[in-house]
Amino acid sequence: MVGPLATRALWGLATLVGAVTGMFGLMVLAPGDPIDLLPNAEAVRPVLAAEWALDQPAPVRLGRWWGRLLSGELGVSLSYRPGMPVAELVWAAAPPTALRVLGALATVLALGTALAWHTSRGERGPSRAVAQATSLVPLFLAVHAVVASLNGGAFALMEAGWIDRPGWFALPDQASLLRTTTSVLLLAVASGSLAEVHADLEVALAELRRSPFVVAARARGESTTALLLRHLLPRLCTVAAGRLAMLLGGAIVVEKLMLLPGAGAMLWNAALVRDYELVLGLSFVAAAAVVLGRFLSDAARLFLDPRWREVTG
Amino acid sequence: MTWLSAWWHLTWARGRWPQRAAALWLLLVLGAALLAPLGGYAVGADVDLTAASQGPSLAHWLGTDHLGRDVAWRLALACQAFVGPGLVAAVVAGVLGVLPAAVAGLVGGGVALGLRYLTAVVATLPRFVLVLLLLMIYGDSAPLLGAAIGLAYAPELSEAVYGRVEELRRADFLETSLAHGVSWWRLLFLHVLVGAAGGLVARHLLRAFAFTVVLESTLSYLGGFGVQEPWPSWGNMLVFEWGRGLGVAQIAPAAMLLFTVGACASVAGWAGGERHVR
Predict the structure, then answer these.
(1) Is B218 part of the contact surface with chain A (CB cutoff 8 Å)?
(2) Which residues contact A221 (CB under 8 A, 6 or more apart)?
(3) Residue A27 and residue B88: Cα distance in Å, rounded?
(4) Are B153 and B89 in contact (CB under 8 A)?
(5) pLDDT of B67-88, one tens digit each?
(6) Using the beta-carbon criterion (under 8 Å), do A135 and B122 form an inter-chain contact?
(7) How far is Cα B227 from Cα B141, in angstroms, rounded to an integer?
(8) Taking a C-beta distance cutoff of 8 angstroms, is the pair A244, A197 a contact?
(9) Complex confidence, ipTM
(10) Cα(B238)–Cα(B108) distance, rounded to whole angstroms?
(11) Could you give the C-alpha distances from A88 to A77, A251, A294, A308, in angstroms and in order?
(12) How close B97 gets to chain A, by Cα (Å)?
């Protein structure tokens, strides 16, 4: 198992190196002087010209950038929080986003498995239609509708004198359990997350139900629930790794619209003020999270599925 | 004519009425993007506070927003915001995701490994992050938005095409065709890309278009990127009416967005053959 795992670790590392080099390449290939695009260009020009070594050829600059990255330094924020180390900003913002994304991932996997369990039996019912309908609603529209409904409903009840002002009112301005839960649920369900997870797991479960070992267990009168779930686990790992990147992207929308603190909202705000160092730092962390997610998924699959170990070993 | 007839029998004639209606809806959206700018509606000079927040009437079919601007005209004009980028995205995703993956799937070996590496590198960045990064560095413009979305979508298309072609690599009909002197390129384009993977490619290109509709609306809704006021986008039309009660001006862009994304999904399923559980 160590051999395939080491191969995957190397592959992950190589893709991360490629992604970081690609991001740097995008900066280098941009026409004109990148400093000109900054809102405070003249103020930061002397510092940045030296820091980015703009008079040096691109490979030298890339080497310097990698050197800095390997020493754990992500540069200094240029316009979002001028002068603050990017690493400090990123490490402060990343944990709430990570928790939000992991919560959404667990939710969508649980909901997707439950729905797929029901629909993979081939019975007719509204479950599949409900899952597919969620794929049509863009995340921002779902957030808009939910926040407007909660605020509008609460306001109407307050106007009628039925309730006092709730602690979470108005939703985007107040930290509350309701806001956290809503954000995780919306991230999990909207923008096709639930529909895609459901579709993947439905196909996997339908195949499993037709497998000879499941048919044989059923013929012996044994319960197949535990058997099916055990064999579904490797597939769940792959699905989880595939959803991670989408959920990280969705976190930008949810955090921005629901005024939640986190790396997603920070990325959007930093991109608006063209804070290259901060956006590159946050993008690097997002890429590293995706690579780590893929590696953990592969490792779990290798551990759980001996057939896959044989095929890939 | 043979091609047209084959297309007719394979797609339109096979479709059911919801799928045909969805295809017509997409044609309507495309027509609106092309024809609405010719209608003479003056964006920016259309504010009329005396006609603010009106309901539907003969003069304003879908009423007006809180600045008295005609909602129906703005909905039609907003189609320009995503149709152009959507087509660019489909072309870029097609160019980057189809041919290299098909060649790699047929050839295998080092070429396939190289392609899979490049695909993995691009897919390492979440799509939204990659698009945002490109818009920040190269400036916010409609063609760039389309190209960025195409690039971000290409890995998914590439993986799908590679998987399908790799399955076919040792298929009997390919070896027989080669033995009968059919050229490699003809085999690749006609038998593999059009015959075996055509539906798959069409489905993914439509999904790339739908992704553009959603992403453009999202960017315009959030503000700062995408279409800015006074130019209309379904995203900024929705946010512009935020907090002003549930009226047609707010429901109409949301409904248009849902219809269009739904139509893309329906036609994509039609073109690509839906996945069934039996």
Answers:
(1) yes
(2) none
(3) 22
(4) yes
(5) 999 999 999 999 999 999 999 9
(6) no
(7) 9
(8) no
(9) 0.90
(10) 48
(11) 10, 20, 26, 41
(12) 18
